[in-house]
Structures
1.
Amino acid sequence: MHSQIKKPHSPHQKRKASTRGAARPAPRRRPTGPTRVVLFNKPFDVLPQFTDEQGRSTLKDYIPVSDVYAAGRLDRDSEGLLVLTNDGELQARLTQPGKRTGKIYFVQVEGVPDEQALNALRTGVTLNDGPTLPAGIEQVAEPAWLWPRQPPDPGT
């Protein structure tokens, strides 16, 4: 079963404290050379970064391009589209909640989610790195373009 999740714009935007007197971060800039955008279908069990001290598979094993950074993230045990770019402004537009860039995700889950699970996503859930915004979610039929998936072994 697949669920389609659309992250709506949030009316509850966090406000930052005043930065008067504080050092401001350097503004994100466009690259001096050509803008690079890499669309990568990240496989399962690949870290969404270019280095790993533990020797696990990383983006470097698949992407021979330097100086690009992920615009978003996928966990190691997730698979799907990962956008990488050398354009800091584009990266910010795609990832920062204040930019209000709408996104639609097709998510394949083990089993069939019940209404309680769907309602939790509709109201927002708390992950290890904090709460999510409420999401619009609906179950959809499996798309014809979906590639075969090897579910992870529950024992690992």
2.
Amino acid sequence: MKKRLIIGIYIFGIITIVNSHYSFAADLNVQESTSLKTLNVTVGNLEPGFSKDITEYNLNISKDINEIAVEAIPENEEAIVNIQGNKNIGQGENKIYIDVITNNGDTKRYTINVNKEKERLRLTRVKYKKYDNITRF
């Protein structure tokens, strides 16, 4: 019967053919990976390019983009990935946070600093008045 072990300390007993008894302890307090294996965005390019050891990136986007789809795949298949800030992106500086959370509660945060192009004002109509009484100096 296979049984999956969780983090902790276990003591195992072994009985050999000649009736000798051995025991040993195994410490399963293993550090789970909080790193991402992949980080991609649907618009633009991350600067610098993705590396699991780099946790802060920059991204420039046009004024027409309001939402960025983020693909974040953890190295640890059992880790949870939580993404915040990738919707309703306003003009100027924004932040997207990607948290990788393991079963034992360890967390690593990746941040994408998003710079959304600002709207440019366009002059669409000019009104003017003609003044007859202008005093000249």
3.
Amino acid sequence: MFPTTHGSAVQRVRSDDAGERSRAFSTLVAAYWKPAYKHLRLKWKQTPQGAEDTVQAFFARAFERDFFASYDPTKARFRTFFKLCLDRHQSNQPARPLNVDFAGPRASCSARRAAPTPTPSSSWSGSGSSSRPPSPT
């Protein structure tokens, strides 16, 4: 699912030249945006909009904090490092609230509250004038 990364793009992310760093970062974003989106949809069960928002936030944070400059090719492949960074970013995000429509349940609860509450004596009204429950046969 994740593409093979060109080592030159990862090396250029560490460049001292801000323009070179920005171009290299753009190359990585172009290569990894869609795989990151799919990863969030499949592993983290995010909605399409939620996954888009998370990918955008992840790349913005990665650029601000220079995440990819700490990559060490002797320890892991870049795609492994990338997924680890993405998963850590996602696990540190607050849980998104569920979008639940309570109009239907509220209406049925209101209807129940409006109905008169049955009393024990009204439940036995068909059994004659006695206030006792009917005897079992």
